[in-house]
Amino acid sequence: MKIQKIEHIGIAVKDLKKSIRFYEEVLGVQCYKMEEVEDQQVTTAFFKIGDTKIELLESTSPEGPIAKFIEKRGEGIHHIAYAVDDLPGALREAESKGLRLIDREPREGAENFRIAFLHPKSTNGVLTELCEKPG
Amino acid sequence: MKIQKIEHIGIAVKDLKKSIRFYEEVLGVQCYKMEEVEDQQVTTAFFKIGDTKIELLESTSPEGPIAKFIEKRGEGIHHIAYAVDDLPGALREAESKGLRLIDREPREGAENFRIAFLHPKSTNGVLTELCEKPG
């Protein structure tokens, strides 16, 4: 597959407002957008840094994947997202190379991206998102 | 502080050669450098992706910090490194804003960078490296 760049790094947090303050006041980067992604039961906050982004993730439900991640491992880095040209093609290639897919078909992510996750068992313990920019 | 970009994302792996093959053959990105960093008891492998890098980390000792991380949490994302202009100044600023520092003074990292770590207790569970490019 052809990876263009690291689109974002997803970080699981308990308290989005408090974490936004940390990124803005200590690291000096500005939140340019907040968005709820119903499909993943999260509210997200985005920060542009160089040609990539930090995506903070707060769960909207105690049963959501981010709430469960925090319960198990605490707050911290949740996933890396790589931007690819052709998401369906990248998924077929990943599968043909023996990777375990969480999503066999693209679904809708934040910022209207099409996204799909690879299973961390196949990727050195790193939950890996492949994503394709809209349009 | 003034963050220029995400310099790299550090990923703890058990078997560097096997992981390099995964990044090269599946993700299609090329390792441009391997380097041992004695101070941190690791061998590293670097991949450039957009304006940032992936740094794979394999422990050179069963007592090293990466070996202990893997023992506790398994393979996976270990830290995020932000490039700053003035590392000593950034450390003083972080401390004045109440962050807990792991390194109060810069030390030597891979690729001749000066580096220092912030404690994940202060940074939403994310082990955070600040680094300054040499020269």
Give the topology, please:
The structure is a homodimer of 135-residue chains.
Chain A: E1 3-12, H1 16-25, E2 31-37, E3 42-49, E4 52-59, H2 65-73, E5 76-84, H3 87-96, E6 107-108, E7 114-118, E8 128-132
Parallel strand pairs in A: 1-4, 5-8
Antiparallel strand pairs in A: 1-5, 2-3, 3-4, 6-7, 7-8
Under the CATH scheme, the architecture of chain A is Roll
Beta-strand proportion of chain A: 35-45%
Within the largest sheet of chain A, what's the order of strands? 2-3-4-1-5-8-7-6
Number of strands of chain A: 8
Largest sheet of chain A: 8 strands, mixed
Spatial extent as radius of gyration of chain A: 15 Å
- The separation of the N and C termini of chain A measures 19 Å
Protein chains sharing the most extensive interface: A-B, 38 and 38 residues
What is the N-to-C succession of helices and strands of chain A?
Answer: EHEEEHEHEEE
Helix content of chain A: 10-25%
Indicate the structural class of chain A: alpha+beta
